């Protein structure tokens, strides 16, 4: 080969080296989404981030409800080895990290992407503090849903309930037919969620707000709340031996397969219905608050711990931008079972259950989730109260009333 050709080849080679290949924006992301639908959903985030020039390293920590994952993530922050991003609930769970100055503000990306305008106002206020935005909210989940198996109800010769009396008639019929009446998970956070369903459905959103927003202990001592405690106590007559050790996704799976009649669970359960190839609203029925229909606004956010490497901020801002982009919001939420956190995305493709939830949100029939109204310590005490009540049947309705009054008055 002539020298000139060698030089030409060398020039090309050097030119390739000279044009810097855009370095991927690396992000290690900690979350607790490991069930079938949760991992399918979070994969939509991973795909979108990588397509946008990111490099997503998954740091999944199993455990429904996220208690373990949050402890691992917080320990890594305190240990000086934070992940690039980590999941919390839309709640006060990350407020202490804000107060300690450990979280990156997201004001620039929030302003650029107009979050204040497009994000649901209840959610937007939950991620903003002292005039700054500290988290990227990614969905709206309601904890207040009753799921049921039309096939199991048919086998027991009963219809879907419209009232709590109907529900107990159905539960009796299922029991008589040898079908698990109520698929309850053994985890305390899910038993607190069953309590919230009874409180909002039977007691009503006003009673819920009097207790958790106004911290009115007299509301807990009221005849209305006694009715709630009595219903919750009676619910324990329909628990099966399999409850202990049962995870939330195993509970909803019993309803999906017709082995159980009912399950109180947030609408992440709907993700499991979808991933099982079933149709929400047809194969599995959904009631957003038996009795008094309401949407309990909760969900998930990602926070971005401050990093030693200033370059990480670019990856964090790119990830925050991608999580909230309209197309990613639709792709993720359709698999997650939640509603998009943006009001400006097309929800016409949502299933019948999702549409019920969005309608409640739109009509104002919603309440802020309890995790937004109480600090994580109180939230933990509520889980313990419900957990003890479900595992120890010697605890009476009056004990539950006293226990809740003690927690609420201690705040
Ligand atoms: C909730 C979370 C949902 C779902 C559920 C079960 O706290 O908001 O996204 O993951 O836990 O793990």
Instruction: Enumerate how many helices there are, as a single number.
Output: 21
What is the β-strand count?
14
Class of secondary structure makeup: alpha/beta
Q: What is the mean predicted local confidence, pLDDT? A: 94
Give every kind of bound small molecule, once each: beta-D-galactopyranose
Shape: globular
Helix content: 40-55%
Radius of gyration: 24 Å
Strand content: 5-15%
How many structural domains can be distinguished in the coordinates? 2
Uncertain stretches of 5 or more adjacent residues? none
Largest sheet: 5 strands, mixed
Strand order of the largest sheet: 2-1-3-13-6
In the CATH hierarchy, the third-tier topology of the largest domain is known as D-Maltodextrin-Binding Protein, domain 2
End-to-end distance:
83 Å
The CATH superfamily of the largest domain is identified as Periplasmic binding protein-like II
Describe the structure.
The chain is α/β, with parallel strands linked by helices and 411 residues long. It has two domains: 202 residues, D-Maltodextrin-Binding Protein, domain 2, CATH 3.40.190.10; 195 residues, Periplasmic binding protein-like II (D-Maltodextrin-Binding Protein, domain 2, 3-Layer(aba) Sandwich). Helix content is 51%, strand content 13%. It contains 21 helices and 14 strands. The protein has a five-stranded mixed β-sheet. A four-stranded mixed β-sheet has the order 9-10-8-11. A three-stranded mixed β-sheet has the order 7-12-14. Helix 2 crosses helix 15, helix 10 packs across helix 11 and helix 10 packs across helix 20. The chain is globular. The N and C termini lie far apart (83 Å). The model has no long low-confidence stretch (mean pLDDT 94). Bound molecules: beta-D-galactopyranose. The site of beta-D-galactopyranose (GAL) has 12 residues, from loops.
